[in-house]
Structures are given as structure tokens and as C-alpha cells.
Amino acid sequence: MASAASVVRRALLYVPGSSQKMLDKSRNLNVDCIAYDLEDSVTPSKKVEARSNIQRTLSQPRAAGIREQAVRINAVDSGLALEDLTEVLKAPHLDTIVIPKVNSASDLHFVTDVIRHTFPLRHPTVSSSSSPRPQPSNSSNPPPITILALIESAKSLSSLPQICTASPNLSGLIFAAEDFALDLSLTRTPSLSEFLYARSAIATACRAHDLPSTIDLVCTSYRGEEGQRTLEEECLGGKGLGFNGKQLIHPSQVEVAQRSFAPGEKEVEWAMRVMIADEKADRAGRGAWTLDGKMIDVPVARKARATVERAGVCGSDLRALRERWKDQEPE
Q1: Three-state SS string across the chain, please?
Q2: Structure confidence at residue 127 as a pLDDT band (50, 70, 90)
Q3: Phi, psi torsion values for 315, nearest 5 degrees
Q4: Cα 99 to Cα 108: distance, rounded to the nearest angstrom
Q5: CA-based nearest residue to 277, from 253, 259, 294, 263
Q6: Would the CA dihedral through 262, 244, 145, 125 be positive or negative?
Q7: Is the pLDDT of residue 10 over 50?
């Protein structure tokens, strides 16, 4: 599987599957991940129509600006998940299944088994029990269908270790704040402090189990300058907790989220300087050295490399930056 730095879901935008107009408009966006929705945004009477709409949308040629096409199905215990999967797995350009209300490992087992039996070539092998990440057995096979799991309750939070190791298809966790608040009778506040424990636990679990994506709560404010400022503050706050993406509910949120979760210009410049100098220090047999008066050791150098890799995936001109700092020396 690609490294965590190379899997980019800075923005995960939900689009209602029941609106053909919105589905069509979404194909003109430049966004890391679109999650076509069959769950909360679709009324019971529109579920069948939404499945058909999404299946047709994902059967069209890929839109140039969309990195990843996902579908959020209904919860496994809703009784609708199998019908959702039966329809959307027919689509040739489906990349990811988003599973809501994942309370235990069994929810992931169910979806993984359906994928395995429907498309065995898009089910990964497992390299080891301690690292259940997708490992395509043959490079000529299509990439595995990945899974993102929504953490929405106290039960799911307490089951994170089991959830994180439940499926070789699992590629990340998503925090659903509104349902979590309902489950715990919490009131959402602008500070989001009531979610600190849950968000920290989710981000830590993803890192501990080498899951590439940690996607933060929805920002319900998006209109006007104040809404955009609130969104940016939430993005940067989530990034500070270890999240690397955010759920979105409106296309106007995409630019802010993708900019916020990409490495900043100064951050990338510093990382490139560290990486170039570290290559020279390594050839000279130096395990620790300094740059601008700061000690650089192995962990710092590894972080720099991950930052540069992620910046490249996010569109930074690494070749020009490397050329600019090619003469950087370890101090």
C-alpha cells in the first residue's frame, strides 16, 4: 500500500445521491474525495433512486479533478447496506466505501466479505496480522476497494483497537461529531472542547494502526466570510490534533480545507532543506547535526521526508524547491 503521506483526503465532500443535479455538478470540482451519499441526506423513499443515480455517475469516465470517488452506504444494522453494496459495487469507477455508525468490528467484517465475494481481485491480501493494510498480490490487478469507517458513538470509541484491525481494506477513520454528541447528550460549542477526548483517541488510533486517513468533524458554518474563517479555524485545530482531512457539506468549503491540510510553504521549504542536508550528513556518516541552530536527528529527518512527500502529492513544485536548496549543508 502507498505510504500514509501519499494518500491524500484533505477534503471529503458529501453529495446527496438523490439529486442528479448535484451529482452532475460535482464532476466539475477539484477535490480529493467525493462521497456520494446514500445515508443521511437521502430520505427512505429516495434510496432506490439514489442508488441508481450513483451507479450511473460512477460508470461515467472519471472526472479529471476528482482524486477519489467514494460512496457512503447506510449503516450495516439498518438493513439497507446489502442493497446499497449490491448496486454501487457494479460501478467500474468506485474507489471507496464509507461505512456509517461503525460500532464494532463486525460491521467491517460484513462489508469486507461482500467486497471479497463480489470482486475478489479488488480485495487485498494481508501481509501480516500486525499490519492489515492492502497488499495487491499482482500489480496488473485493479487497486483494492478501500473502506473508511465513521466513528459516531461511545461504543465505537471504546472499540477502536478492534475496529482498526478488522479489515485489510480499512484506510481511515472519520469522526461524526453530531451523532456522537447525540449519543453522549453533549452540546456542540464553538470551542469543540467537548470532543477533545474523542478526536484525540481517533487520531491516535489511526496513527497506532498505520491508517492513512484521519478525517475530522463537519463544519456546519460555511456561508460568507465568517463561515470561511470558522472553517479554517476548525481545519487548523483538527490538524493540530493529528487529523489530515475534513468532512465537507458544501463545495465552497473545498478550497479552504485542502489548503489548510496541505503542508504550508514555509513548512515545505524547511522540510526540503532538512532532507537535502540529511542526505549529505548520511553520506558523511553523521547521525545528528544542526540546521539554523536546531538539532536534527532521525525522527526529525523522517518527518521532513513525509512532509515533502505529502507536499508533492498536494501539488507543490518539489523539483524547483530542491534546485533552490541544492547547496544546503548540514551544520
Answers
A1: CCCHHHCCCCEEEEEECCCHHHHHHHCCCCEEEEEEECCCCCCHHHHHHHHHHHHHHCCCCCCCCEEEEEEECCCHHHCCHHHHHHHHCCCCCCCEEEECCCCCHHHHHHHHHHHHHHCHHHCCEEEECCEEEEECCCCCCCCCCEEEEEECCHHHHHCHHHHHCCCCCEEEEEECHHHHHHHHCCCCCCCCHHHHHHHHHHHHHHHHCCCCEEEECCCCCCCHHHHHHHHHHHHHHHHHHCCCEEEECCHHHHHHHHHHCCCCHHHHHHHHHHHHHHHHHHHCCCCCEEECCEEECHHHHHHHHHHHHHHHHCCCCHHHHHHHCCCCCCC
A2: very low
A3: 110, 5
A4: 8
A5: 294
A6: positive
A7: yes
End-to-end CA distance of the chain: 36
Q: Which three cell numbers stand for residue 268?
A: 515545505
Whether 148 and 107 have beta carbons less than 8 Å apart is answered as no
Query: Under a CB-based contact definition with an 8 Å cutoff, are residues 301 and 328 in contact?
Result: no
| Residue 1 near residue 135, CB atoms below 8 Å | yes
Separation CA 318–CA 313 (nearest Å): 10
Which pLDDT tens digit goes with each residue over 52-109? 999 999 999 999 999 999 999 999 999 999 999 999 999 999 999 999 999 999 999 9
pLDDT tens digit string along 148-177?
A: 999 999 999 999 999 999 999 999 999 999
